[in-house]
Hints:
By secondary structure, the chain is mainly α. Helix content is about 85%, strand content about 0%. It is built from eight helices and no strands.
Amino acid sequence: MADALMAMVPQYGLWLIALVTFLSCLAVPVPSSLLMVAGGAFAAADDLVLSTTVFAGFFGAVVGDQTGFAIGRKGSTLLKKMGTGGSQRRILFERARNFSANRGGTGVFLTRWLLSPLGPYVNFVSGASGLGWAKFSFYAAAGEFIWVSLYTGLGFVFSGQIEMVVDIAGNISGFLAATTLAIFLGRLALRPAKDQLQGELAPK
């Protein structure tokens, strides 16, 4: 699917990039980061304009975040289904809920670009948990700008090695997703031992 979408960038350009970043913020499995890298490469070749390419990705991501936040605010049934779905999705959802509860706006910011696999779920959780809309919007937009600028910029600067950049971008996303899951599973595994130790040390 990624190859087919990248082949469509010269023809549909900005609309495709905006659509894909929008869908990615709603947990739809689309290669948004790779499409932004491709968009940056086409901008370097003067097939697209860099500033409007960045804006298209940023606009789609912001609208996607706002849609996810609104779904979370009003769609408790959907959230319950996500929390009981497949194992990987359920783990991501639980991790997003804990991350959002512990870090608030900072968590929203970090899950736009550094821990992007959690991003869509943090959108839903932020809306459901009552996080203020203005606070969510500020941190989400700041993080999305970094995300879009980073990947589009990589494509623009390294347009001559686009295949290499695409591979690196894919590996980075996979590495961050795996690291996030590993941290969460490690904390779950250590929690019973920690609780037991605290029980033994508690005064009797």
